[in-house]
Design a protein that fits this description.
The chain is an alpha/beta fold and 227 residues long. The protein has two domains: 61 residues, no CATH class; 116 residues, Alkaline Phosphatase, subunit A (3-Layer(aba) Sandwich), CATH 3.40.720.10. Helix content is 32%, strand content 11%. A three-stranded parallel β-sheet has the order 1-2-3, covered by helices on one side. It has a three-stranded parallel β-sheet with strand order 5-4-6, with helices on both faces. α5 runs parallel beside α7. The model has no long low-confidence stretch (mean pLDDT 89).
Length: 227
């Protein structure tokens, strides 16, 4: 009978889960040898392929390797051959395996703007990039007549600590926007039902969903016409 293979990094991730860490706030892991020295650290002249196909935190991670000026944490001078699967940001000096074939046109935001209508997008900072950048076809600049309202998300290690997040402030901003007669489209994102849903904490998930239900219901009854 063959011995099962041992994968130290996989075991380290499982240990982090058992210690209560979650995907959204997993502490960095570094494999070291018997002398405590890092194994496999990316060095000068190495080749790196970043396989992720999103485009938010990936920009930050890629910048740590390729940005000429990087001040977020100490980093020794390093030159790497960096390739990404898709284009995370136009200004990153990297090779892109699958660059965009063409600009995404006729999105909802562009169509609303083309008709001379006004729109607002409301979200917490944790998900603001989704309702402005991704929803606009990865366009970084707002369309004419488009404004963004970004509510700062709580600064905590784990959103299970505050599963309500900033739903109250998002709801207030949404009500104000809906009551603005000059606005033609209101796009709103309640981040907590997404980000807390990634946390393996049933009680926190239920609180997050209940908070959004409460805020939505409060607005509905406020607007419901009298019988």
């Amino acid at each position: 009978m063959t011995e099962p293979k041992h994968y130290p990094m996989a075991e380290a991730v499982r240990a982090a889960y058992r210690a209560g860490e979650e995907d959204e706030a997993l502490e960095p892991l570094v494999r070291v040898d018997s002398a405590g020295q890092p194994v496999g650290r990316i060095g000068d002249g190495d080749y790196v392929i970043f396989y992720d196909i999103r485009g938010e935190r990936e920009v930050e991670l890629t910048s740590a390797f390729v940005a000429q000026e990087f001040s977020h944490f100490p980093r020794p001078p390093i030159q790497v051959h960096f390739a990404t699967m898709i284009e995370y940001a136009r200004d990153l000096p990297v090779r892109v395996a699958f660059p965009p074939v063409r600009e995404i046109r006729h999105t909802l935001g562009e169509t609303i703007s083309a008709h001379g209508l006004r729109q607002v997008k409301i979200a917490e900072s944790e998900k603001a990039i989704h309702v402005r950048y991704f929803l606009n076809g990865k366009r970084e600049e707002p369309f004419p007549g488009e404004t963004h309202i970004v509510i700062p998300s709580p600064e905590v290690q784990n959103y299970a600590e505050v599963p309500e997040m900033r739903a109250e402030e998002v709801a207030k901003a949404t009500v104000q926007a809906l009551e603005d007669p000059e606005l033609d489209l209101v796009v709103v994102n309640f981040a907590n039902v997404d980000v807390v849903g990634h946390v393996e904490d049933r009680a926190a998930i239920l609180r997050a969903v209940a908070e959004v239900d409460r805020r939505s219901a409060k607005w509905w009854w406020r607007r419901k016409p009298a019988a």
